[in-house]
TrEMBL record, chains A, B:
InterPro entries named in the record: Isoprenoid_synthase_dom_sf, Polyprenyl_synt, Polyprenyl_synt_CS, Prenyl_diphosphate_synthase
GO BP: any one term: terpenoid biosynthetic process
Species, as recorded: Ruminococcus bovis
Cofactor entry: Mg(2+)
NCBIfam families: FPPsyn
GO cellular component: cytoplasm
Catalytic activity as recorded in UniProt: isopentenyl diphosphate + (2E)-geranyl diphosphate = (2E,6E)-farnesyl diphosphate + diphosphate
Pfam families: polyprenyl_synt
Protein name, as recorded: Farnesyl diphosphate synthase
Domain of life: Bacteria
Cross-referenced CDD domains: Trans_IPPS_HT
Family classification: Belongs to the FPP/GGPP synthase family.
Keywords: Isoprene biosynthesis, Magnesium, Metal-binding, Transferase
């Protein structure tokens, strides 16, 4: 099985299925969580966790719970981000967003439950028996720190505060580092912790993830201008519509393509310190920098 | 210092303060989290964690991070519960609810960040050095399981689905067990894990917490009918207004007072299996059953 199939299959195991699910009065909550989780996406974050575990000497099996945990965090953030009181987006990955299908109340709670379930997954008895309590707790701590108030959620707040204003490039950079890079960095770092728990490996994972995240987010801003709704699976031009300052509005497209290449090269270069086969991680960074959606 | 002071003081340490806070672009997020966390309340859950740690042979110091973690979870659930797409409550503990002060977007994110920060707290390096990685991960797992999709959040969904309908008493009981008892039970169980990690103690903590939680929630339903807005710090009669079936609407006040006593006695009786001084836990159960707000 390839990484993607492994992730898809493992994700399903963390939710009540069949009779167990049907017997729950709150069944609709599980349906709502699965709806967004199964809406696909590129599964970049969990793939990074698996790849980093392998290049650092661990196995894919050991890294899978952490890969699933980070995808749950990413998915919850999308559900909450789409809510009317946030970006108010009706479409996500070409499908109606969670609250358009299940209502705002269930969507809010599905996000809360996915966020919570990420930690149940990373700290489960199965996970602890695979990697030990120390690594499990360490990954959980990094996941909470990088996705919380001074990480991803903090980045969301900077994003909200920047709407309709002309903000300096440093603020945009802070926002990207927190809103996007933090979680991508976390995915890489958890893989390194599972694989070797070697401080040098963790540091490399951090540098790779941070730069990949910056390249990824600037590409997102570029695609919001140059792509079309069908390729992107969501409305384009939403940044302009929301009067958002982005790297593109502040620096122009040419400079942004340059920056994407620069950050991608930095990410790739950082892998030199790892003694394993890092070709897949390099290829992934390149692929991300050339994506069309 | 008494339990309450210890909890209040420790809670503050988990948030950026002074210059560190002021330098954050997302400072308003921290303000919003602290606004709801400092709004007080009775701190019943964290107090239970401290008490159970002590009666099981642990210290208050070891239990404090877990006490703070559970209060963060409780507080996030109140912020999200008050949002317009949920209960749409303007008042909480006699003060404007979070979204009335900070707006819906920041309130949503403050809830997300408090939920996330609970796990950063329970899994922090300081916590692990106090109790070890195994207990830290085990508490985190129980916290995630009991507050998530088949625990507290599941209970919220049952609550939503029950609005404006006549629902059977069994559904209401399921709702209370998940929405209220699960987190109170969790507070007790984490204390027992920190104190001794003895399976019998954990089982007792579970039974005590579950019954205390049921008594607590039925008392809440009673107070919604018999109290006044000033004592309660929130609008009364909201259950009737929302056409909610409650223990009171289904069984009447007299039967409900009986049930509160019954569950309180069960909680107290369960403590017989612990060889320490359980007088404070017994007094707390009695006090809860006699509360006026």
């Amino acid at each position: 099985m390839n990484y993607l199939e492994l992730i898809e299959n493992k994700l399903k195991t963390y939710f009540p299925q069949g009779k167990e699910k049907d017997s729950l009065i709150e069944k609709v909550l599980i349906d709502s969580m699965e709806y967004s989780l199964e809406a696909g996406g590129k599964r970049i974050r969990p793939t990074l966790t698996l790849m980093f575990s392998e290049v650092c000497g661990g196995t894919v099996e050991q890294a899978l719970p952490f890969a699933c945990g980070i995808e749950m965090i990413h998915t919850y953030s999308l559900i909450h981000d789409d809510l009317p009181c946030m970006d108010d987006d009706d479409l996500r990955r070409g499908k109606p967003s969670n609250h358009k299908v299940y209502g705002e109340d269930i969507a809010l709670l599905a996000g809360d439950a996915l966020l919570t379930n990420a930690f149940a997954t990373v700290l489960s008895e199965e996970t602890v028996s695979l990697v030990g309590g120390e690594k499990s707790a360490k990954c959980g701590r990094i996941l909470a720190t990088l996705s919380g108030m001074t990480g991803m959620v903090g980045g969301q707040v900077i994003d909200l505060q920047s709407e309709g204003k002309k903000v300096p490039i440093d603020t945009i950079r802070q926002m990207h580092l927190k809103k996007t890079s933090a979680l991508i960095k976390c995915a890489c770092m958890m893989g390194a912790i599972v694989g070797s728990n070697n401080e040098e490996h963790i540091k490399i994972a951090e540098t790779y993830g941070e730069n990949l995240g910056l390249a990824f987010q600037i590409m997102d801003d570029i695609l919001d201008v140059v792509s079309d709704e069908k390729s992107l699976g969501k409305p384009i031009g939403s940044d302009a519509e929301n009067e958002k300052s982005t790297f593109v509005t502040l620096l122009g497209l040419d400079k942004c393509y340059e920056l994407v290449n620069e950050y991608t090269e930095k990410a790739i270069k950082s892998l030199d310190g790892i003694n394993g086969d890092t070709s897949q991680l390099k290829a992934l960074a390149v692929k991300m920098s050339e994506r069309k959606n």
